[in-house]
C-alpha cells in the first residue's frame, strides 16, 4: 500500500491545469507516465534529489487509471483531494448545479461509518 | 499593550463570493438572504474598529502537504499572496494580496514557543480560502495587516481538541502582551458538520443537524467544558468526514474565554453545511 503516493498523484495533478486535462482525456497513459517520471519527485527540490522507492500497488494504479473514485475512497485516498480533482474533470459534463457532486455522493452510498482510514 | 477588540468565528463557505456577486438567472435563490446575514455580521467587525487582524484557518492542501505537515503554523511575511488556481477554478475566487504584520507574527512565534507550543513558521505563505473568505465577507476592502495562523484539521494524525482550545487561550494572552497600542481583532473560521468526498456530501442540509444544534449552543454560550466532554478526534467523524474543522471553532472559544457568551450569534441553514457566525467583544462594548 502506498496511500501517500495516491494522495501525491491527486495533489500534483489537481494543481496543474494541463495535467488535469491530460488525466481526464488519457487516464491510464497519464498514470503510467506519472508513476515512471514524477512519482519520485520531491516537491520543491532539485530533480537529482528524487525519491527512489515510491510506487503504486496494482489496486491503486488501476483505480487511478479507471477514474474509479469509489475505489479511491475505499483505498483511503484523502477524500478532499479526490473530490476536488474529479469535480475539475467532470462537473462540466453535468447541466444541473452540483449534478456531479450529487452523483459522486450517490456512488459512494454503499459506504457507512467507519469510513476507511485516511491517515498516511 | 495591544487590545483585543473583537473575537470572531465563522464558517468559510467558498461559494459565497460567487453567489453574492451573481446576477440574473445565475443568482441562486438563497443569495439575497445570505448577503443580508453577512452584511449584519460584517458590521460586528466594523464597529470594533480594528487595526490588525489575527486570522486562524486551515490550509486545504494548497501550500502545506503530506511531505512536511505542520500541526500549527504562524505566517511571518510582509505580504501574503492569496487564493490558488483550483479555488479560482471551482469557486471563482479572486487573486488577492494581503499585507502582513511581521512584528506581531514574531511576538506570537517567540511567545508561543515559550509557552510550549511547537509552532512552525513560514516566511512565504500563500493563503487560501479559509482566510480569504472572511476577508471577503468581513473586510472586503482588505485594508488591514494580518497574521495568519494555520491549523492542521485535515491530515491525520491531528492534535487533540483540547490543544486547539489551549492555543486559542495562548493567542489571547500573547496578543494582550504585545507591546503595541493597536486594536486587534481575532478572526477564525471552521466548520460545523461537513462531508466532502463522501456519501453524505451536498445534502439539502449539513450532514448532522443535531451536532450543529449542539455546536452552536456550545460556541454561543462559551461552554468549553460541555464541548470538550463530547468532542474527541474519533467522535468528529460521526457528523461528517470534514467536521474536524470544528476544532478551529474550539480554538476561537479558547480565544473568547471559558463561559463567555457570544455577543452576536447567527446561523443560516444552507445546503451542504450550516453557516454560523459569532462575535465576542472582550470589552463588552464593541465601539471604537
TrEMBL record, chain A:
Superkingdom of origin organism: Bacteria
- How is this protein named in the record? Uncharacterized protein
TrEMBL record, chain B:
Q: Which SUPFAM superfamilies match?
A: LigB-like
Q: Which residues form the Extradiol ring-cleavage dioxygenase class III enzyme subunit B domain?
A: 9-261
Q: Report which superkingdom the organism of origin falls in.
A: Bacteria
EC number from the UniProt entry:
1.13.11.8
Q: Could you list this entry's UniProt keywords, alphabetically sorted.
A: Oxidoreductase
Q: Which InterPro entries match?
A: Xdiol_dOase_suB
Q: What's the top EC group for this one? A: oxidoreductase
Q: What is this protein called?
A: Protocatechuate 4,5-dioxygenase beta chain
Q: Name one GO molecular function term.
A: protocatechuate 4,5-dioxygenase activity
TM spans (from-to): none
